[in-house]
Automatic annotation (TrEMBL):
Keywords: 4Fe-4S, Iron, Iron-sulfur, Isoprene biosynthesis, Metal-binding, Oxidoreductase. InterPro entries: Dihydropteroate_synth-like_sf, IspG_bac, IspG_bac-typ, IspG_C, IspG_TIM, NO2/SO3_Rdtase_4Fe4S_sf. This is 4-hydroxy-3-methylbut-2-en-1-yl diphosphate synthase (flavodoxin). SUPFAM superfamilies: Dihydropteroate synthetase-like, Nitrite and sulphite reductase 4Fe-4S domain-like. Residues 16-256 form the IspG TIM-barrel domain. Pathway: Isoprenoid biosynthesis; isopentenyl diphosphate biosynthesis via DXP pathway; isopentenyl diphosphate from 1-deoxy-D-xylulose 5-phosphate: step 5/6. The keyword Ribonucleoprotein does not apply. One of its GO terms (biological process) is terpenoid biosynthetic process. It comes from Saccharopolyspora spinosa. Coiled coil: none annotated. Residues 271-357 form the IspG C-terminal domain. Binds 1 [4Fe-4S] cluster. Belongs to the IspG family. Converts 2C-methyl-D-erythritol 2,4-cyclodiphosphate (ME-2,4cPP) into 1-hydroxy-2-methyl-2-(E)-butenyl 4-diphosphate.
Amino acid sequence: GMPASPAPVLAERRKTRQLQVGAVGVGSEHPVSVQSMTTTVTADINSTLQQIAELTAAGCDIVRVACPSADDAEALPAIAQKSKIPVIADIHFQPKYVFAAIEAGCAAVRVNPGNIKKFDDKVKEIAQAAKDHGTPIRIGVNAGSLDPRLMQKYGKATPEALAESALWEASLFAEHDFHDLKISVKHNDPVVMVRAYEILAEQCDYPLHLGVTEAGPAFQGTIKSAVAFGALLRQGIGDTIRVSLSAPPVEEIKVGTQILQSLNLRPRKLEIVSCPSCGRAQVDVYKLAEEVTAGLEGMEVPLRVAVMGCVVNGPGEAREADLGVASGNGKGQIFVKGEVIKTVPEHQIVETLIEEAMRIAEDMEPA
Ligand code: SF4
């Protein structure tokens, strides 16, 4: 027979400098981490901490908070101290808030070089303060706020313009011997964004934070981010990710986590392998898959559950999974590790699968 081919894997991670964002290591020696950003007014400490707790529970590794006003800056020490995950302060125009965030004990600060003019003479002081506190800085270039100088040079936010902007900003910090930098170059077009990161990956060894900016509502944003991150992570490019959605931030974490799981960059947890259904289906597959998914939500073990509409591919897939059902003739054959353990009437399929899943899960280690 054919020799067994090795399991397919992604390209090796691009070698980067290593950073410490609070307790989370960032760079090629560390797992890719998932980030999000709070939507609360940062100065509202309780609401912000409440949302951070929800994000933490959803699996968020690092959280970013906006800091547009003095009230927000004043809230940073309490938030940085009470959050269970590292907090990055997001600062656009005001160097004084950069210093405040560093003093506040934020795990990192994000600055936008589009606004560098106001920063220019401050870079040295910022680099010194960041160095003193061991605070990394993320240089976050956004297509929407590209440095006017580069806008003029390139005519629009091309991949080259985005990369040049970020590298130029990084060089300003490097001049002061500061290299604890992470870079992002976000664009709403995944094709432009992917190219911008490829250029950056070739030209520097800073860790990269991936994001498709203004990606849109959940459906579109999920697809844009998954396509773009997949294209980059496939090449080993990307050290932290943020899925931007016009949706509650917990949704961003779910999508980001799922992207990493799909690429085997995170252990998979519950996975429902359900067929798309077709003219052969002898059961309402959509409803069955939805009910099983709902019944098993929040399961922390790497369980694969197959829900198949008929007996053509059904038994095959159901056998590959830990647990599965192949339906036909108003009945469901329930498989556990490839063996039919029982056949139940259609109306008992869901409860039987959930029961069996719970039983199997008890003997499994969490992913
Ligand atoms: Fe169609 Fe059966 Fe395949 Fe489902 S498992 S898509 S019902 S052939």
